[in-house]
Amino acid sequence: MKITVLGCSGAELPGHNPPGFLIGDDLLLDAGAVTSVLPEEAQRHLRHIFITHGHLDHIRSIPALADNIILRRGWNGVKLYGIKPVLDTIRDHLLNDHVWPDFTNIPNSDNPVMTYAEIETGQWITLNGLKIMAIPVNHSVPATGYLVDFGGRILLYTGDTGPTDEIWRAVERVHTVIVEVSFPERMTAMALKTGHMSPSLMKADLAKLKHPPERVLITHLKPQTSDEIIPEIEALGIPGLTILKDGDVYGM
Ligand SMILES: [Zn+2]
Ligand SMILES: [Zn+2]
After folding, report:
1. pLDDT at 128
2. What stretches in the chain show pLDDT beneath 50?
3. In a 10 Å sphere around its CB, with 0-12 CB exposed, 13-18 middle and 19+ buried, how is residue 136 labelled?
4. CB-CB contact of 101 with 71 (8 Å)
5. What is the pLDDT of residue 29?
6. How many whole angstroms from 126 Cα to the centroid of ligand 1?
7. Which ligand is nearest to the CA of 195?
8. What ligand has the least distance to the C-alpha of 11?
9. pTM confidence score
10. Are 29 and 147 in contact (CB under 8 A)?
11. The domain 2-251 belongs to what CATH superfamily?
């Protein structure tokens, strides 16, 4: 199965889109970049969106996607998955009939464009032959990362987090890690204060895994600092490490 990087940036500039990872063709991890990146034909296949947290850069494509769905003939609804505080943020502050219409009532509540699926952390959800589990992480608002089990090969996606423990210890072996590094070393205090990683914080957290993963994919860099942060990450000498770019595709 393919993972397509729709966006992997920690700030928004031309060519640097906020986080969105397409798994196969119908499931997303985060919805920062969807409607501005994915062709309409591909948007039609989307059915499931797993949200890590309620910050705008991870949910900002949801309103435009809802709008695109209702305009289609023979449309299918999309389910938004997350822990309760994350879904509450979307319900109360985004699809709240003020900022944008409440698409859980459009065209009607029996067959709406969007539905909410509240999930519990630490429990596998089986979907399309995949298993997905949310694990709490350490951010400035309630947030989870996700484990996705592709029939034995496991992807670990941290979402936004500062140093954290539970997600690194949740399973015995992880094949691919998508981990955030937002700030360069000189901004480590800022990273800690805002629930993010600097390169050295990320390296220390990766060492909490029982076995080194085959691939370490870095997301959420602030592109304004790329001349500092990229050499700092590369100097860590972590095997299998790649700094993600929008449009990258990985097989699982
Ligand atoms: Zn965030
Ligand atoms: Zn973010």
Report:
1. 85
2. none
3. middle
4. no
5. 98
6. 26
7. 1
8. 2
9. 0.97
10. no
11. Ribonuclease Z/Hydroxyacylglutathione hydrolase-like (3.60.15.10)
